[in-house]
Amino acid sequence: SIWYIAIFIIIFLFPYAGLLSKKTLIQSFQVILYIPITFILEQLPYVFLAGISVKRISLLENRLSRLIQTSDKTQPADRIEKQTFLSMLIILI
Q1: Is the confidence at residue 76, as pLDDT, over 70?
Q2: What is the domain count for the chain?
């Protein structure tokens, strides 16, 4: 969507660069730069939040692996049940 506008400007405006004034060329160049930069800036919060989610999941996974290691003294059936429950919990988070 946004990229289509930038590509349209690049493809259809630059062949006529000799016919356009410098002011028009500068304005079109600003638009060409503005569109991708704006798109990237819009995506930054999602990248930041995804990083937080990955950190939370890795911390939870470390805690759960420690919990599983401490519960190794229990019976094998209980251990397998706890491991599957904790694995499902990680997937849901």
Answers
A1: no
A2: 1
